[in-house]
Design a protein that fits this description.
By secondary structure, the chain is α/β, with parallel strands linked by helices. It has a single domain, classed as Response regulator (Rossmann fold, 3-Layer(aba) Sandwich), CATH 3.40.50. It contains 6 helices and 6 strands; from the N terminus they run E-E-H-E-H-E-H-E-H-E-H-H. A 6-stranded mixed sheet has the order 1-3-2-4-5-6, sandwiched between helices. Helix 1 links the parallel strand 2 and strand 3. The relative contact order is 0.17.
Amino acid sequence: MFGREGVESVKDVGETKKRILVSDDDADDCLLIKDVLIDIGLECEVRFVSDGIELMEFLEECERKERRALWSLPDLVVLDLNMPRKGGREVLREMSVHPRFSAIPVVVLTTSEEPRDIALCSSLGVKLYITKPSMYGEWLERFEGLKEFIA
């Protein structure tokens, strides 16, 4: 499921399919995210990476392929803050200074409820900050907000 080969179609919508890149090191959370996207009716293609290094490599590869009309940047990034090797905070800083990557809407999905994390994310342009809920119904409610960024 992880890495650049981890592509999941949530629904087949042909050429209008939106792309979401999810960066989270927890395989269970990734499966849950996929299920939630299906259950809220979000029609998209989802790719999973397990840390910030893979995320940045993926974005850079997309940008190279986009120049040759082979692929384009994702329409949305869902980002965990706490990951090995390179965490979400560092990724947000890197994306915010890149001319093309800074235009991609980012939704943070994390266990952190720290005010300083929320403030940092807000200052770096995060569109939505979601703390990981414990109940499936809460996941559905919180993920409804993604629709405005992927429509």
